[in-house]
UniProtKB/TrEMBL annotation:
<dbReference type="InterPro" id="IPR022742">
    <property type="entry name" value="Hydrolase_4"/>
</dbReference>
<dbReference type="GO" id="GO:0016787">
    <property type="term" value="F:hydrolase activity"/>
</dbReference>
<dbReference type="InterPro" id="IPR050228">
    <property type="entry name" value="Carboxylesterase_BioH"/>
</dbReference>
<protein>
    <submittedName>
        <fullName>Alpha/beta fold hydrolase</fullName>
    </submittedName>
</protein>
<dbReference type="Pfam" id="PF12146">
    <property type="entry name" value="Hydrolase_4"/>
</dbReference>
<keyword id="KW-0378">Hydrolase</keyword>
<feature type="domain" description="Serine aminopeptidase S33">
    <location>
        <begin position="29"/>
        <end position="238"/>
    </location>
</feature>
<dbReference type="InterPro" id="IPR029058">
    <property type="entry name" value="AB_hydrolase_fold"/>
</dbReference>
<dbReference type="InterPro" id="IPR012354">
    <property type="entry name" value="Esterase_lipase"/>
</dbReference>
Amino acid sequence: MDPQQRPLSLSGAPDGPLAGSLRRGRTGVALFHGFTSGPVSVAPWATALAAAGADVEVPLLPGHGTRWEDLERVTATDWRGAARRTVDALLATHEHVVVAGLSMGGALALDAAAHRRVTGVVVVNPGLRFASPLAPLAGWLKYAVRTVEPIANDTVSPEADERAYPRTPVAGVHQVGRLQSAARRGLADITAPVLAFRSTTDHVVPPSSITVLSRGLSPGLLTLRPLENSYHVATLDTDAPIIHAESVRFLSGLPGSPEQAGQHG
């Protein structure tokens, strides 16, 4: 087990704009990391949301935080189930729940939003399509090629380290494809507002992923924010402060949020 890739459970600051005065009035955020990485990749984002008053849960997704061989034995169903259990736990104790995620975690957040009554969705470079033309063939290629070189630490900043696996199992890539298909199918069922951050240069997720998102959602739900100075792992990159500030602003403006309630109370 990587000692740094641990689940995060952060209580929101009581004086932040996302904090409520009632036991069920606080905002909860289910935040999901990307493929082959772990909570480290979204930890600064989670900390910023908690400082603003949200209770934040970042689960360690099945097959992650240990060794790459474990990713050969998990399925898209395992990841989707873990995400929904996290959301359900927050829904049981919070009036307002937002789902968020980076890359594959963005696909999980969108998939959960299609099946749960969440207040909002925030995604960073969500993975709904593969950039590699070979990735959709992973279901067959896994029998000939067990692993490939990792695509990790795609950042402008040389100091960033998401602590991803040193190899990427092809069987795991196949399961990411299954998750992507499920998330794409569910876009039309999402009713919550969606804020999507998109790096203008991304070496992992293609522009077609955002195209799929914008076309799949109902009109008026999507707000798109470009990131000019970050690559794929933008949550650890130069534009991370933009993600933090605009995520808090977005959550504060959602219908039923504590700040909105205060304005209309």
